[in-house]
Amino acid sequence: MGAVKRAVDDDPRPGRFVLTGSVRADVEEQMWPGTGRLIRVQMFGMTEQEIRNTSPMVPAPKLLDALVAGDVNALSLPVPSHDLRDYIEQAIRGGFPSLVLDHTPDTRDVWVDSYLEQLLTRDGHLRIADREQYKLARYFEAVAANSAGIVEHKTIYDAAAVDRRTADTYDVLLERLFITEQIPAWTSSRLDRLIKMPKRYVVDGALMAAALGAAVDTILGNGELLGRTIDTFVMARLRPEIS
Q1: Of the candidates 124, 206, 200, which has an alpha carbon nearest to the alpha carbon of residue 155?
Q2: Using one digit for the tens of pLDDT, what is the confidence trace for 81-126?
Q3: E strands, the chain, in order
Q4: Residue 64: domain span
Q5: Do 31 and 141 belong together in one domain?
């Protein structure tokens, strides 16, 4: 990072470097030399349009633009048509490119279980003690069980058997790991948006299902979990559209 900093200071033309890497810069408490020199571009999971697009070089039409323009012809149902089971399968498959492009249904569960375990025990380990790693995993499970919900924070941290202070720390850590998000309340009043309780989301349905150990049949047999899964799926597809 130091070499890039010096190069940018010498020649500030934009677009000369693309930096990728782990989340260490966000979760480690170190001096950060990128302020004023870098622009963060947040990456999201693949949308269904991108997944189904047979011509990757041709951009898919933007959903929100079509809705604003009232262009009904730009909105089409999948062919063949989907039933509820199909949508749940898509929801818990997630949008990670590796899950979508590289893995079969037989290996997806192994990949996402390993990914989540390493996030919570390796990347999360940067900010919490070894003895607390199981608490972070349990807290994330409680968040996943309430994804897309508006519940008292106490409900979540009581379910995880941690105190409020620990839960606040975990919330910050999970958001810095880019696996959870809090959406402000929907209201035209900016003050109310700060006061009212936000909705908590797991950012990807595959992570939500992995944390809960939930398969398609499990979700279809539980009305509350079904609703949360669909809501989480829709949000995961709207984030890149909004961006």
Answers
A1: 200
A2: 889 999 999 999 999 998 888 888 889 999 999 999 888 887 666 5
A3: 180-183, 199-202
A4: 48-242
A5: no
